[in-house]
């Protein structure tokens, strides 16, 4: 029997914060992230910052194990109270978007356009290439000591799962933050 992988749902939250309110907002953000961690199904959070005019834009990406658990968080009294507290710090309220696909890596922060596909492909390649070279080497010792794991299907499953988890939870959120300016820049005249 084939076991289905769990659905991972992401919530992208955008907040535009006035410079005068930045310290208050960052303290509030730490509080709400601590509260969110306590909810069942919470898998992690990434925060990206950028500046526009006299505002700081925060893009917060939360991951939950399924849509129902995300909905419990969204409907919770705790979240509603914290969002109400933050309204005076935000220029245009709490902007949220939920998705079950991994295109949140390339979700625009300030504009309504995604980066060109070729830029998305370049960043994805930069993340996956080193992992596809190093992860099999890391598993080699395990396979040598546990030959029952070294079969074609089993080893492929373990190597692929390791790469996917590292890409989704560790490297892609970090690397897209590093390349945010280039990804969102319109320096090439190319279209997606």
Can you describe this structure?
Helix content is 50%, strand content 19%. The chain has a 4-stranded antiparallel β-sheet with strand order 2-3-1-4, with helices on both faces. The chain contains 6 helices and 4 strands. With 192 residues, it is α+β, with helices and mostly antiparallel strands. Helix 1 packs antiparallel against helix 3 and helix 4 packs across helix 5. The chain has helices at residues 22-37, 67-75, 77-86, 117-145, 152-178, 180-184; strands spanning 9-18, 42-52, 55-64, 95-99. The longest helix is centred in the last third of the chain and has 29 residues, at 117-145.
In short:
With 192 residues, the protein is of the alpha+beta class. It has helices at residues 22-37, 67-75, 77-86, 117-145, 152-178, 180-184; strands at 9-18, 42-52, 55-64, 95-99.
